[in-house]
Amino acid sequence: MTALFALATSLLWGLADFGGGLLTRRMPALTVVVASQAIAVVVLGAVVIATGGWTEAGPQLWYAVAAGAVGPVAMLAFYKALALGPMGVVSPLGSLGVAVPVGIGLILGERPGLLQFAGIAVAVAGIVLAGGPQLRGAPVQRQAILLTLLAAFGFGAVMALISEASTTITGLFLALFVQRVTNVTVGGAALLVSVKRGARALPEDGGMRIVWASIPALAFVGLADVAANGTYSIAAQLGPVTVAAVLANLYPVVTVLAALLLLKERLRAVQATGAGLALVGTVLLATG
Predict the structure, then answer these.
(1) How many CB atoms sit inside 10 A of residue 66's CB?
(2) CA dihedral 176, 100, 116, 16 (to 10 degrees)
(3) How far is 261 from 161, CA to CA, in rounded Å?
(4) pLDDT: is 227 or 85 the higher one?
(5) Sign of the alpha-carbon torsion through 24, 27, 30, 32
(6) Calpha distance 76→241 (Å, rounded)
(7) Cis bond leading into 72, ω under 30°?
(8) Over the stretch 126-174, which tens digit does the pLDDT of each residue have?
(9) Is 75 within 8 Å of 250 (Cβ atoms)?
């Protein structure tokens, strides 16, 4: 069950990233983040009321608040790093955040078997290669590397924090709601600051009309991201975090395959190799 929920996480995150990437071609990235998470807040609020999740409130929700505060910072750092480029280096490095929950699992005493250790190594290598790392070409700015590592740490921290925010399903709904409210608060503040500095909050062509037309896509991105956090939390509670975290971080492979199938993008040899290694690592982890 750990493998099943973790793989569901990678599928959801991969599709959310794919959808978010498409949306940022039409409107500012920060607007996509805030709008998609705002929709998730409304839906999760209704779910919490319907399930009585408010009764699960407790000190553990501070983990959800922390996850909600770290998430937008990590995302903004990642977008900034992508802008500095080259993307072929930045994108694979961003997936190294898996080291955070894996490291925490090892510190807490988890000891995967030899086959699972091999699976972790193979899967992580596949994740990095699936992003299509740029092995030669223009030099990488130090700022881009630092921002990418900051983003990776943030992504990994969110995974670790949200898995500690609840122990029940109704409590998980409440934790995800609190996380998203914090996301919107932090992201909204950042959007306001950027607008005051002269940046645009709406698309140059079409303005608010484009945003309204994109509501279904924004809802998909926000809700897929929420669902991914939920399935990862369940996976981390059911089994070893070291296994759940690696399998959940296969989402770059999903994003690459979605671009291949839906946008007809050409898969580079290094990406095909990475996807194959990720699959082998998944099998080793699931059977180890």
Answers:
(1) 19
(2) 40
(3) 34
(4) 227
(5) negative
(6) 26
(7) no
(8) 766 766 665 555 555 677 778 878 888 888 888 888 888 887 888 889 9
(9) no
Distances in whole angstroms, Cα of residue 113 to Cα of each of 10, 134, 240, 243, 280? 23, 33, 11, 11, 16
- Measured CA to CA, the distance from residue 85 to residue 80 in angstroms comes to 9
CA 117 to chain centre: 23
The helix (H) or strand (E) run that includes residue 133 is none
Structure tokens at 136: 């030669």
Running DSSP on this structure, what letter comes out for residue 266? P
- Rounded Cα gap, residues 255 and 100, in angstroms: 22
- Per the CB < 8 A criterion, the answer to whether 20 and 28 are in contact is no
Residue 110 burial class via C-beta count within 10 angstroms: exposed 0-12, middle 13-18, buried 19 and up: middle
157 vs 80: CA distance, rounded Å = 19
Closest Cα partner for 159 from 283, 90, 63, 80?
63
What is d(CA 95, CA 159) in angstroms, rounded to the nearest whole number?
12
C-alpha 162, offset from chain centre:
12
Q: Please say if the pLDDT value at position 288 is more than 60.
A: no
pTM of the model: 0.78
Is residue 254 within 8 A of residue 99, CB to CB? The reply is no
> Cis (ω within 30 of 0) for the bond into 86?
yes
